[in-house]
Amino acid sequence: MAKPEQQATVTTTVDRLIHEPARLAIMTNLFVVESANATYLLQQTGLTWGNLGSHLIKLEEAGYVDVVKGYNGRKPETTVSLTDKGRDALLGYRGQLLEALAPLAGD
């Protein structure tokens, strides 16, 4: 069993904004594509329009994603891309998780 100080480290060292499952799904999907429209993100994450929108606002406010609203012909379209800051934050989050979970590997 992990010592109390090890348990506290896991919860305090990871980026809590990315750690939320829906935002992690958005970030990881954007990591592998240059940009994506909102419909693609809906299909990949299983979120509703309202959920996706609220999580994108939080990620945009943090500077992790760029959200561009425009039109494709006459149809409105929202395109989302990961910023350099967001890419760095996701890679940092991955490192934080690996570090936090290292004691489980017996290291």
Please tell me about this protein's structure.
The protein is built from six helices and three strands, in the order αααβααββα. It has 107 residues and is an alpha+beta fold. It has one domain: Winged helix-like DNA-binding domain superfamily/Winged helix DNA-binding domain (Arc Repressor Mutant, subunit A). Strands 1-3-2 form a three-stranded antiparallel beta sheet. The longest helix has 18 residues, at 84-101.
Briefly characterize the structure.
Helices cover 60% and strands 17% of the residues. The chain has 107 residues and is an alpha+beta fold. Strand 2 and strand 3 form a beta hairpin.
Structural topology:
Blueprint: H1 4-13, H2 16-19, H3 21-31, E1 36-37, H4 38-45, H5 49-61, E2 65-72, E3 75-82, H6 84-101
Antiparallel strand pairs: 1-3, 2-3
